[in-house]
Amino acid sequence: MTDDTALPPLAFLGAGSMGGAIVQGVVRSGLATRVTATNRTVAKAEELAGLDRVTSVALEREPAANAEAAAAAEIVLVGVKPAMVPDLLREIAPVLRPGTIVISLAAGVTIATFESILGPSIPVLRSMPNTPALVGRGVTGLASGTTAGPDAVALAHRLFETVGTVVDVPEGRIDALSTISGSGPAYFFLLVEEFTKAAIGKGFSDAEARLMAEQTFIGAAALLEASGDDPAELRRRVTSPKGTTERAVEVLHDARLDDVFARATDAALARAKELADLGR
User: Which residues form the Pyrroline-5-carboxylate reductase dimerisation domain (predicted)?
Assistant: First the structure.
């Protein structure tokens, strides 16, 4: 289907924020041969216009663009809103060539829904990327359908590795993964917000507080990545016995952060299951 240096023709049906990020990652990687991206409006389509080897199409101008893009692609990524997925699949099913790989970007829509509409000749995978894909540092969970063989999985890996790292999981773990890597950036941003407020409370200006908070977290993350050490070990190195950091960490431990994060991710998982039930 493809060689070792390029991805086959791709179609992104519903190239919104996440789909658009992946389009840009593929372009940056140099692996793109031909990419077609569809969006409902001209304004949204124009956001991807001009990218190398990308044809960005507005459905309000070309209503048949989804079917045309799917017919010409070897990998089709479905990024429309979950409620719109079944109708889109029924639209493209007649034009898909056997063996075309279809990858879901839609939260809460099961592989079974895709396979029941597309049939056994179409390998299906379900993905869960996260927003750091916008800067090439995403984490994508990837679950394989019943007819997605090693070649299809390998191609999906190469595609999502253009925007970060890939974690293979059974579909039953996709929702759990979404509470960690999917929602995780929001938890991080919340910590930066609160750290910034604490700095302002110590008398720093808004700009100073934001600079210190953001760069401290960014620098700590870079150190974690560069060192390869366990985060607990890095924390211990900062925490001198009977020092100021030790006193602060004691307060954080007393706040039972372990319980807070467990309850937060449990709440996200419960909501993911509710959304999945609504999508059935």
Answer: 171-275
